[in-house]
4-hydroxybenzoyl-CoA thioesterase
Amino acid sequence: MTDLSNAIAFVGDVGAKASAPARPAMFEREVLVRFAHCDPAGIVFYPQYFVLLNGLVEDWLTDGLGTSFADMIMRRRLGIPTVRMDCTFTRPSTLGDTLVLGLTVTRIGGRSIGLDVQGRVGEELRLRARQTLVTLDLETMKSVPIPADIRDRLGRYCQPVPEIAPESLSMPADGIRRETDGGKHAD
């Protein structure tokens, strides 16, 4: 996709037989890594990922669930803050990369939603996050049950999250990945 304004993809079982159950969708958004996202080395400064992931959630609510994020905050006075985020950065993203951010719903609670979020450049995983959102009354600043109109639309994005082998997410203590020659001369 070249037009970022049309960079939403709903990945599901396109062309599936009518009798086959539909697979849950992943909400995806392409993001061009800009200078503003990067540190002086030209790689994404990790706090910027959290800004990008928040934007993904806003877009998912508006474009994926059909619930205007702005309307939710301004008119309904309903917030949906992140209360927990566990993020693993597997490879650096650099200025000019096209990062594809995608999310699926892993859990629907009474007042909270669990998400699995991935960031990829091509087929290469750059980050993986487990995120918990809570629905919040902005007047009382207390959690409230997920509104029915939102809860009813979450199902299309629900799927169990496959476990990733720990070695695929691990980084050396110094944070620098190195190629090895099959273990003979590993650094």
Remarks:
- Residues 25-161 form a domain with the Thiol Ester Dehydrase; Chain A fold (CATH 3.10.129.10).
- The longest strand covers residues 98-108.
